[in-house]
Specification:
alpha+beta; Beta-Lactamase; Helix Hairpins; Heat Shock Protein 90; five-stranded antiparallel sheet; 10 helices; rod-shaped; disordered N terminus
Length: 498
């Protein structure tokens, strides 16, 4: 609030003006395309396993080469140890030169280094000549003196292979230590890795291209579907999703379901428009009659009392007709919105049908129509008495109205262990085959002239249909033009009352 002040007639006046608050903009959720989600998923699922497999294979190859090198060095060390033992190298100094030449030659040929140590870890011979006379305390030498051949890779990438030298009485008089550099293995593995990476890159490119195409194939129909649904939300119910796929899958099912929804929406919209047109027509007719009748009275002078009474009776009849239409419409609206609760209770259906016949019998006698009621057995069911009575009465009333004089209306009540069956058959004008499915539409009449004597409000069968549906039942029509109509109602004997 911003206060403004000014003087009026010497008095201080304060006006509080409400300042306009800035509108808060709703944060729109960040849009993340399904295509990119699919693509990212495919990359994770497709390429990451390739990388893991390639890395695993590369490490396995490297481990294999190293293990083979260990075995090779241990084998050479054992050969040298055997020669040292056979030539009594450790104790006979006379014959050392020839054996040292042999060890030096083996070292040069295989590109490894050989050290001979005595039992006190003193270097007796070294093909590299740098360690002679030095003491070497390393774990491999200690383990070899304990009669354990060992080969181990060091942190600097060198392999030590140590083998003991046997003396008399199976004693350990020294150790042969062979060392080798693994740089050649590293180079070999690196070359393999380069070629593998090139192959992996090629595969990754191919996989990504395939994934882009596949994500496009999957998401393009969804985009088309979204466009159609957006058009439908704007009221263009004629929109349809084009289905060209020869393969039946979930996307085709989704497109077909969307088209079925569009068909239903278009049908509902058409029905709504027809309903509005029918309501307008039904209410316009009595209103026009009332206007004509009232104007006739107003425009005439010295109108006799008898004419006033006659015209007012006619106006009253038209008002009653309008009230009946409006009441039926309100009933249908409540039934559609499930606003009317059903009061279920046990009811003798034979008594109900007999009561309906008794009430409508005078209407049948006026047209000399015989009502025949066939009771197969006594039947009690859980129903809403008032609503079901109205629904069945509408059926019988329609049968009497559309049956010519001297005709017959037959009612039948039957049941099995689950359902009750009520049929109403007449020998009336019947219904054309192409219009049988429309008899429960609102304001539909077989009599196209909408005659007031036979047509009623045109809502009775719609109310009947809604009532039967609320009883979890079904209603079917069998008719042949100029021969008659049979309507069969099925409702459960017991309702699931919560």
């Amino acid at each position: 609030m911003n206060p403004n002040t000014f003087l009026q007639n010497g008095e201080l006046v304060i006006i509080l003006i409400k300042s306009k608050q800035p509108e808060r903009k709703e944060k729109k959720p960040h849009f993340l395309s399904l295509r990119w989600i699919l693509l990212a998923t495919y990359v994770v699922v497709g390429i990451v396993p390739l990388l893991l497999i390639a890395s695993t294979i590369l490490h396995s190859v490297q481990d294999y080469f190293i293990e083979e090198r260990k075995k090779e060095l241990l084998s050479e060390a054992n050969v040298i140890s055997g020669q040292i033992t056979s030539h009594d190298y450790m104790f006979n100094k006379d014959d050392r030169d020839s054996l040292e030449e042999t060890m030096l030659e083996m070292s040069h040929q295989n590109d490894f280094r050989v050290l001979v140590l005595d039992s006190s870890c003193l270097v007796v011979y070294d093909t590299g000549y740098s360690e002679v006379g030095k003491t070497v305390f390393i774990s491999e030498v200690i383990e070899a003196l304990g009669n354990k051949d060992i080969a181990r890779v060091q942190e600097d990438g060198v392999v030590y292979a140590a083998v003991s030298i046997s003396g008399s009485n199976n004693s350990r008089v020294g150790v042969v230590l062979v060392s080798d550099d693994l740089s050649d293995i590293s180079v070999t593995v690196s070359n393999i890795a380069k070629k593998g990476n090139l192959l992996l890159a090629g595969l990754a490119i191919i996989v990504i291209i395939i994934m882009i195409i596949m994500s496009q194939i999957f998401t393009e129909p969804i985009k088309k579907l979204i466009k159609v649904i957006q058009k439908m939300s704007e009221g263009h119910f004629e929109q349809r999703v084009q289905v060209h796929s020869q393969i039946h899958n979930e996307m085709v099912d989704l497109a077909l379901a969307c088209n079925q929804m569009a068909d239903q929406l278009e049908k509902v919209e058409s029905t709504r428009q027809q309903f509005v047109s029918n309501v307008s027509h039904e209410l316009k007719t009595p209103l026009s009659s009332i206007k004509v009748l009232s104007e006739s009275i107003l425009l005439q002078e010295d109108v006799p009392k008898e004419m006033y009474v006659e015209f007012l009776h006619d106006i009253n009849s038209e008002v009653d007709r309008m009230a009946a239409i409006i009441n039926d419409l309100l009933t249908l609206v409540k039934l559609d919105q499930k606003e009317v609760p059903l009061n279920f209770k046990e009811l003798d259906l034979n008594e109900m049908l007999e009561g309906i016949i008794k009430r409508l019998l005078p209407l049948a006698k006026e047209k000399n129509i015989h009502i025949r009621y066939e009771k197969v057995k006594d039947i009690t069911a859980t129903v809403d008495e008032m609503k079901l009575t109205l629904a069945v009465a509408n059926l019988v009333d329609n049968a009497i109205k559309y049956t010519p004089e001297g005709g017959e209306v037959e009612m039948k009540l039957d049941a099995d262990h689950q359902n009750v069956f009520i049929s109403v058959a007449d020998t009336g004008i019947g219904i054309p085959d192409d219009e049988v499915a429309r008899v429960f539409e609102r304001f539909y009449r077989v009599d196209k002239t909408r005659d007031r004597e036979t047509g009623g409000t045109g809502l009775g069968l719609s109310i009947t249909h809604s009532t039967i549906m609320m009883h979890n039942g079904s209603i079917k029509v069998y008719s042949k033009e100029d021969e008659g109509t049979t309507i069969l109602v099925r409702i459960p004997i017991r309702q699931n009352v919560s």
